[in-house]
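Chain particulars:
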Amino acid sequence: MKTIMVDLDDTIVAFSEMFVNKCNSLVSKYYDNAERMKIEDIQEYSFANAFLKVFDGLTYTEYENFLNEIFEDISLYSNAIYTKESHKIFNLLNLYKRKGYKTILNTKVSTYTMSMSKLAFFKNDKRFEIFDEIILDMERGEHSPKPYNYDIMIDDAPHNIEYYLENNKEGLVYMPMRPWNEKYKDNERVIIL
């Protein structure tokens, strides 16, 4: 059976925007007259540089503390923001499902709380019933690449795209355009959503 795998964060759900909103809320809570982060500040897959540049004077340890607070928020995905490509992605999934493809959602989580937040989100949005399989990949620190054995992959992460293209010579990638993955836009096996 052929397979199509889709990512969640910054592919279906605008995690960058959720991160920016949460950071601004937390910084305002702890620091008076703090700068405000904007979505345009995030230009890399890793958000640390944007955070440290905008919130000048805060340390990497403070950034990690904010990450921990964000990832331990059970309500993080309760008010999920969808990407502008999400509708197109669900249409693609429906098309490939009708063609007999197995549909798989593969998303990374860094805490148990984050996995519970995502599971509640999937349960409350009927569109996620399209998936034959949902994989919550628990990981701490840097993300490792996702498997490359899918026939089609929909993802935004540069390390996933690169690993997939290098190891699956027949595979096709659908990619939402982000500042961190622009180098793949001219690849013949990458379709921009």
